[in-house]
């Protein structure tokens, strides 16, 4: 059987670091990137696929290709996410009056719908025994932990992602043996996503993508598979839903 790992968003800051960490531990990696974003330095252990966009049809086509080639995914990590984007524009809201219809649509499209589509299709090619699927979430997606308010679109879209994962874990557990679905808060990582918001972050709490990738792989290896869905942070600690 052709077992591999899969990284969605493989040329982003965290995605690229994950690919490197997986190669280092000897995995065969499927790296999914958008458009022309391909890393030419990847070795033969990496198979690259480019999607023009993360639509239902495009994801289904790729999954069908993997299925036909008898690929089984032991670990999949979906790293797609958006916090700000000057081109749309999208930026965290400070008050109710800042809520914008188009910005909300963009937040949910990237942070909730795209991972949801991957959840939908990946089940066809996940390893039947003890597969792991991770989506990068955020602590601010926790409803119970929300004490400060603000960031309406980002918070809501990450909370929706958490619900999609939690709900999917019920069905994954019916169809696969001891699957593990993980909503992962990586902390503040030194990438383009967090760059405008790093000013008030303590130096020891601004993490490199390499550190983030290694923490993620370390923690998911220790999680209890009797519980099919976990919400944890970069220290491996539980984040309340």
Automatic annotation (TrEMBL):
SUPFAM superfamilies given in the database record? NAD(P)-binding Rossmann-fold domains
Question: A Gene Ontology molecular-function term?
Answer: oxidoreductase activity, acting on the CH-OH group of donors, NAD or NADP as acceptor
Question: Which protein are we looking at?
Answer: SDR family NAD(P)-dependent oxidoreductase
TM spans, by residue?
A: none
Query: Domain of life of the organism in this record?
Result: Bacteria
| InterPro entries the UniProt entry points to | NAD(P)-bd_dom_sf, SDR_enzymes, SDR_fam
Q: Do you know which Gene3D superfamilies this protein is assigned to?
A: NAD(P)-binding Rossmann-like Domain
Q: Name one Pfam family in it.
A: adh_short
Give start-end ranges for the coiled-coil region(s). Answer: none
């Amino acid at each position: 059987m052709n077992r591999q790992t899969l990284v969605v968003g493989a040329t982003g800051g965290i995605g690229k670091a994950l690919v490197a960490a997986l190669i280092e531990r000897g995995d065969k990696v499927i790296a999914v990137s958008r458009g022309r974003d391909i890393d030419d330095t990847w070795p033969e252990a990496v198979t690259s696929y480019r999607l023009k966009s993360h639509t239902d049809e495009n994801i289904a086509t790729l999954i069908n290709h993997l299925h036909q080639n008898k690929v089984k995914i032991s670990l999949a990590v979906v790293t797609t996410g958006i916090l700000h984007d000057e081109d749309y524009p999208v930026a965290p809201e400070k008050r109710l009056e800042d809520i914008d219809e188009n910005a909300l649509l963009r937040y949910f499209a990237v942070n909730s719908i795209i991972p949801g589509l991957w959840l939908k299709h990946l089940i066809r090619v996940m390893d039947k025994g003890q597969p792991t699927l991770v989506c990068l979430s955020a602590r601010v997606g926790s409803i119970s932990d929300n004490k400060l308010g603000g960031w309406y679109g980002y918070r809501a879209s990450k909370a929706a992602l958490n619900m999609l994962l939690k709900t999917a874990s019920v069905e994954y557990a019916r169809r696969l043996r001891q699957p593990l679905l993980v909503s992962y808060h990586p902390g503040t990582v030194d990438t383009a996503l967090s760059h405008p918001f790093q000013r008030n972050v303590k130096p020891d709490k601004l993490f490199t993508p390499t550190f983030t990738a290694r923490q993620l792989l370390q923690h998911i290896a220790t999680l209890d598979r009797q519980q099919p869905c976990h919400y944890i942070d970069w220290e491996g600690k539980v984040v309340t839903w």
